[in-house]
Backbone:
């Protein structure tokens, strides 16, 4: 058993050393733009304490582009959702079919059920993180609209009519459902581990193939959440910044 642990430890160190950049993403500090510098980029100058439009052409183009990019992000939000839903349903269907099939012994023997669980785990986690990323970019363009619209169309976008009914956020509903699906895969994976691993004071049984597969999947999960997939910038919240500055 000691040799087994040594092999696992050696493999773990090798994976971490070779993929340290995938697991831990270096993020750079950016200096936020001052309000005056932000408006200056779009042809609005501060004169005698008031902001005045000096280049209407640049301002209107920027405002139109902000709307186009916002609508693009919303459209892609649903495209991405359909993409992940398709794969997750396919994986879940394959997993259920495998468990209920009369000829599944060979597939289970080669750990196909585990691989489907791990794929479902990674795809559901990725879907949840894609929703968060898409939401951030949508908020980015909406923040531009909020600040520029006063000088183009007036505050039409941020002026809301409330009729007394409850407003539900479509993006938040999808975010919750993605989290629920992810938790379901976590529970299924936990059940698999509980049924294939024995942890007691007297007995410790471990499936080497399953252990390596689960450990590798967790490394990819760390890379998705905290490593390579994470944006490389950080700054103060609710502030604009120049990503080239």
Residues:
């Amino acid at each position: 058993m000691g040799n087994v642990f040594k092999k696992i430890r050696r493999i773990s160190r090798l994976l971490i050393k070779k993929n340290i950049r995938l697991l831990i993403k270096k993020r750079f500090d950016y200096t936020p733009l001052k309000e005056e510098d932000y408006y200056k980029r779009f042809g609005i100058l501060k004169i005698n304490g008031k902001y005045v439009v000096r280049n209407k052409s640049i301002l209107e183009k920027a405002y139109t582009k902000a709307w186009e990019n916002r609508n693009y992000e919303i459209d892609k939000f649903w495209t991405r959702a359909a993409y992940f839903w398709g794969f997750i349903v396919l994986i879940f269907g394959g997993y259920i079919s495998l468990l209920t099939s009369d000829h599944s012994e060979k597939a289970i023997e080669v750990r196909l059920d585990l691989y489907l669980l791990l794929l479902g785990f990674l795809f559901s986690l990725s879907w949840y993180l894609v929703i968060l990323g898409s939401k951030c970019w949508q908020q980015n363009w909406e923040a531009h609209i909020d600040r520029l619209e006063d000088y183009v169309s007036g505050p039409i976008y941020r002026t809301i009519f409330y009729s007394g009914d409850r407003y539900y956020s479509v993006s938040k509903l999808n975010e919750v459902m993605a989290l629920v699906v992810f938790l379901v895969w976590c529970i299924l994976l936990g059940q698999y581990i509980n049924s294939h691993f024995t942890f007691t004071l007297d007995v410790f049984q471990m499936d080497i193939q399953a252990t390596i597969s689960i450990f590798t999947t967790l490394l990819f999960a760390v890379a998705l959440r905290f490593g390579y997939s994470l944006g490389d910038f950080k700054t103060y919240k609710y502030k604009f910044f120049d990503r080239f500055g």
The beta strands are 28-29, 44-47, 50-53, 198-199, 204-205, 233-234. Residues 36-229 form one domain. The chain has eight helices and six strands.
